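Q: What would this chain look like folded?
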Amino acid sequence: MFTPYRELDALLDEFVHAVHGILGDTFVGAYLQGSFASGAGDLHSDCDFIVATTVLPARATEAELRRLHDEIPTRPGFWTKHLEGSYADTTSLRAVAGLGTPWLFCDHGHRELIWDAHCNSPHTRWILRNHGITLAGPPVTDLVDAVPPQALRESMREMLPGLMEDLRTWARFDVAWSQRYAVTTYCRALFTLHTGEVASKRDALEWARETLDPRWRPLLTQVIQDRELGWDPADPPRPGSLEAMYAFGAYAESFAS
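A: My prediction, written as structure tokens:
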């Protein structure tokens, strides 16, 4: 069992078999990272993967992977719409020098692969190195070097000042889910700044509620309790919660300096 969900485990088995067949001798291994690797995956999580390859997919191999990811979300079931991850060559995956290299990326539930560095970040590498679940291949620690705490902290200092503006480019703040996501993301950034490590969404919220200024406890408690509501485009934010989110964002961003 890789996850608490039999349907997801069956999908992962089929997925790894199909990917291995497409990649052939360039296939190195397949791994879970993200929420399921850190022990916090649930029905509101996506299923994050990394497939390690000797070389980045190209030409016929890339085309076959694109066809596979175009087909998977058309299958019946819940988890077929919730895969997210990248195909990473072992050279750029190994050390922090490879950070930012674009990998062939499947966004959450999307059918079209893109070249993007979304998964090639310090926090993703830290989770993969420290908690990654091996679906196939060698132990992930054979492929990924340790991420220095300073690299994690610096990435958060760079991210924090523009975080809210970045969220505005894709998140609808008339939806309650976006308010919760923003607060959670700020908490994860502050946790990393403080510890040089990475926490799951729930653990970061709990840490923030116990560690930060007590005036934020009502907001953080609301976000923790409302996570079970999941994504609902018709669910507006609670009264006053957006104002609290913006104030918390400004507070969190002040730590970047």
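Residues 150-256 form one domain.
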